[in-house]
Amino acid sequence: MNTQQSINPATGELFQEYPVHDAQAVENAITRAHACFGTWRRVPVTERAQALAAVAQIILKNKESYARTITLEMGKPFKEAIAEVEKCASAAKYFAENSVAFLADQHVKTEYRKSYVTFQPLGIVLGVMPWNFPFWQALRFILPSLAAGNACLLKHASNVPGCALAIESIFKEAGLPDGVFQSLLIPGSRVESVIADARIRAVTLTGSTPAGKSVAAAAGNHLKKTVLELGGSDPYLILSDADIDHAIKTCGASRLNNCGQSCVSAKRLIVVERHKARFEQGIVDIFGKAAMGDPLDGKTTLGPMSRADLRDELHDQVARSVKADAKLLLGGKNPGGKSAFYPPTILTDVTKSMPAYSEELFGPVAVIIPAKDDEDAIAIANDSEFGLGGAVFTTDLERGETIARERIESGLCFVNMMVRSDPRLPFGGIKNSGYGRELAAFGLHEFVNVKTIIVA
Predict the structure, then answer these.
(1) Within a domain: residue 428?
(2) 218 and 239 together in one domain
(3) CB proximity list for 232: less than 8 A, separation 6 or greater
(4) Number of domains comprising the chain
């Protein structure tokens, strides 16, 4: 295919096409980025920070336009798209205010006249990003990378080319040097050839575990630094002493946010037996009230999934789980058709023999797994190939903190709240959920040369 298509998942209708960048266009982009890096790296950190402050203002000025593009291309309800764009602005402001401190030399007392650590940019950072948060996922790698003095190339998901080009326009409008950030409209099959280019110095990917393995293998073959944020099947543990009403409200909101298409959504609801009946009814009530419809309608709370083929894959996981004796409490019927809607669905009595227990379900499907007691709930939570996020619900905050800190195998674990990313805190996973961190000082330092200087 010589174009990337924008298809409205609410209608299944094609509304825009963009030419795919050919080999020469990609070569030109890499050449511009490499030349720009030579200049951008010498711009004082204070000036780079000022540029990010301008980026934040432009994002807020155009937030409704950007949000509409998000909604039309991947189906997120408009008010959720507005929130995503506003979060991007807050991240730009955060790195504008903190990158100078994050990149300051760190002096170490030794017997030498001077000894310190300095942070130098690497070069061009390639980002391979997904469609589920098309602005946020991209900007959370771009902002710290640019603050550090790198140049960036974005290979965005092929179903959100309009978002990719809109992001590029932000940095042009902000007056950053031409070439410091560019979007590449190419299919995934061409990513490996870009990684192989000697001028690409690092790669970051957010996506599935298989995609992460592929990119890691390609980057490793050329000794390129990588950061991978991959799949997740986050456990939310509703323990014996949980505030059950709060747990129901939080878990329901987390699972339906972005139509369940979030890496850190409440994917496995692990409930001790004493709360099971009440919890099931509560989730049924929340899911039953979800207003599914046109995502541009302000009354809609649940839009379509991003693509019809992904809707069909999700339904297959649900159907196979029901066939293996999972109990269907709500939904579970594939409406089919060109649009990508899927009804809020609840599976309970899920056991290890079912796809819903071990596979990531990326859509509006709640998976309820019963546990005998709190220790059993912890064991079930860790019985997963994934390790991105997790949450613990308990009225004993000290105990909850201990379980979150010491017992749950994940990169993030929250107590009595849904998992979410925050520019001020590092984000990333372990096990098959990837490695490395995004956001905060940790994310900025992923793509720098941590350089030791000694003056005798």
Answers:
(1) no
(2) no
(3) 263, 264, 265, 267, 360, 386, 387, 388, 389, 429, 433
(4) 2
Same domain, 76 and 200: yes
10-residue mean pLDDT profile of the chain (456 residues): values are: 94 98 98 98 98 98 98 98 98 98 98 98 98 98 98 98 98 97 98 98 97 98 98 97 98 98 97 98 98 97 98 98 98 96 98 97 98 98 98 98 98 98 98 98 98 98
Task: Tell me if 427 is assigned to some domain.
Answer: no
Residues 199 and 81 in one domain: yes
Residue 311 CA, chain-centre distance (Å), reads 19
Beta-carbon contacts of residue 382 (< 8 Å; ≥ 6 apart): 235, 407, 408, 409
Q: Which of 88, 259, 263, 413 is catalytic?
A: 263
151 in the same domain as 215: yes
192 part of the active site: no
CA distance 74 to 258: 10
For this structure, is 438 an active site residue? no
3-state helix, strand, coil in the chain (%, to 5): 45, 20, 35
Q: How far apart are CA 213 and CA 432, in angstroms?
A: 9
DSSP H helices in 183-288? 191-196, 209-221, 244-256, 276-288
Whole domain around residue 304: which residue ranges? 235-422
- pTM equals 0.97
Choose the catalytic residue: 80, 84, 229, 280. Answer: 229
With respect to residue 148, please indicate whether it lies within any of the assigned structural domains. Answer: yes
Looking only at the bridges linking them, the beta strands covering 3-8 and 13-19 are: antiparallel
Do residues 264 and 206 make contact, with C-beta atoms less than 8 angstroms apart? no
Asked if residue 162 and residue 20 are part of one domain, the reply reads: yes
CA atoms within 13 A on the CB side of 149: 19
CA dihedral 368, 373, 376, 378 (to 10 degrees): 80
Identify the CA nearest to 229 among candidates 447, 428, 413: 428
**pLDDT value for 260:** 98
Question: What type of residue sits at position 200?
Answer: I
Q: How many helices (H) and strands (E) does the chain have?
A: 15, 20
Cβ atoms 55, 174 nearer than 8 A: yes
Identify whether residues 409 and 440 lie together within a single domain.
no
Q: Do residues 389 and 412 lie in contact, with contact meaning Cβ atoms separated by under 8 Å?
A: yes
